[in-house]
Write a structure and sequence with these properties.
The chain is an alpha+beta fold. The protein folds into two domains: 36 residues, no CATH class; 89 residues, Beta Barrel (OB fold (Dihydrolipoamide Acetyltransferase, E2P)), CATH 2.40.50.100. The protein is 21% helix and 32% strand. It has two helices and ten strands; from the N terminus they run H-E-E-H-E-E-E-E-E-E-E-E. Strands 3-10-8-5 form a four-stranded antiparallel sheet, with no helix packed on it. It is elongated. The N and C termini lie far apart (39 Å). The C terminus is likely disordered.
Length: 151
């Protein structure tokens, strides 16, 4: 089974709000299950805390209003470096070019390198190494720039 077919199966789950998909033959079966989303619970006594959290979130959004985001194209495990002993692909403050590798998202034992489609400066890395990520989750905030050269 090739990587493209597996990715298509994952996309079917994401686009159609399906929790589980199983396909196969007599010799090979593949089952993909979507991780359940976390539900937010705010008891009446904590509404003030929730409102403060929303205000902080607005401040955080304003902090990155001149940035573009890099989002995970699929659910999986986020890795900042190509292997455990290698340095991270990027750090906050790094200048990046179009096509530069930013991280890896592992899905079903396949390592998917995520690259930037724009040049800029890394302003924030939103995920910790080896943390599970969902499709569409923001991984990086990057301040867009032009003419950056790799050093």
């Amino acid at each position: 089974m090739d990587k493209k077919l597996i990715q298509e199966m994952i996309d079917i789950i994401d686009k159609n709000n399906i929790g589980e998909l199983e396909v196969g033959t007599d010799k090979l079966k593949i089952s993909i299950k979507k991780m359940s989303e976390k539900l937010e619970y705010a008891p009446a006594a904590n509404l003030e805390v929730k409102e403060k959290s929303q205000k902080n979130q607005t401040k955080e959004e304003n902090k990155f209003k001149n940035c573009f985001t890099v989002m995970s194209p699929l659910a999986g495990i986020f890795y900042r470096s190509p292997n455990p002993t290698a340095p991270p692909f990027v750090e906050v403050g790094d200048k990046i070019d179009v096509g530069q590798a930013l991280c890896i998202v592992e899905a079903m034992k396949l390592m998917n390198e995520i690259s930037s489609d724009k040049s800029g400066i890394i302003k924030s890395i939103e995920v910790k190494n080896e943390e599970a990520v969902e499709s569409g989750q923001i991984l990086f905030y990057i301040e867009q720039g032009t003419g950056f050269a790799k050093i």
